[in-house]
Design goal:
single chain, alpha/beta, five-stranded parallel beta sheet, 5 strands, about 40% helix, about 20% strand, binds 1,3,4-trihydroxy-5-OXO-cyclohexanecarboxylic acid, 3-dehydroquinate dehydratase activity
Length: about 160
């Protein structure tokens, strides 16, 4: 069975009450429950991590990558700043899909740049909570293919 770690960064613990006009009304627990259902249908084992601390996120990405698990990550504001998270992806060889609830490209200019996107297999943004489900659908065949070929490419 392939494994996927769903990693959420700073302030995503506030989903549901945080700027619902931008991020929607679903809580992180709602999103995780939706993913768990889909994962069972796809035959994927999920692990959930949320932290407001950059180092904890670095540890989580490394752990997933070194274990050969896929990563669905919404790095929150660290998307725009964290070279450490990017290095954790390249250093551990993690296969990553980056997710943003909002369309970061339609927002402030400082949200237009992501440290993560260049080292991700794919990026989904602007589709709200549905983006996480789409990321799970997308990463599953990529991981199965990677496991079958024994490859260590992350893009
Ligand atoms: C976000 C977009 C980021 O710019 C912001 O800092 C977040 C959430 C999103 O999901 O749309 O915390 O990653």
């Amino acid at each position: 069975m392939v494994a996927v770690h769903v990693i959420n960064g700073p302030n995503l613990n506030l989903l549901g009450r945080r700027e619902p006009q931008t991020y929607g009304s679903q809580t992180l627990a709602d999103i995780e429950a939706m993913l768990e259902k889909r994962a069972q249908a796809l035959g994927v084992a999920l692990t959930f991590v949320q932290s407001n601390h950059e180092g904890v996120l670095v540890d989580a990405v490394q752990a997933a990558g070194l274990a050969g698990a896929g990563v669905i990550i919404n790095p929150g504001a660290y998307s725009h700043t964290s070279i450490a998270l990017r290095d954790a992806i390249t250093g551990s060889g993690a296969l990553v899909i980056e997710v943003h609830l909002s369309n970061v490209h339609a927002r402030e200019p400082f949200r237009h740049t992501s440290m993560i996107s260049p080292v991700a297999a794919g990026v989904i943004c602007g589709l709200g909570a549905a983006g996480y489900g789409l990321a799970l659908e997308a990463i599953t065949p990529l991981l199965k293919k990677r496991t079958a070929s024994g490859a260590q490419e992350n893009r």
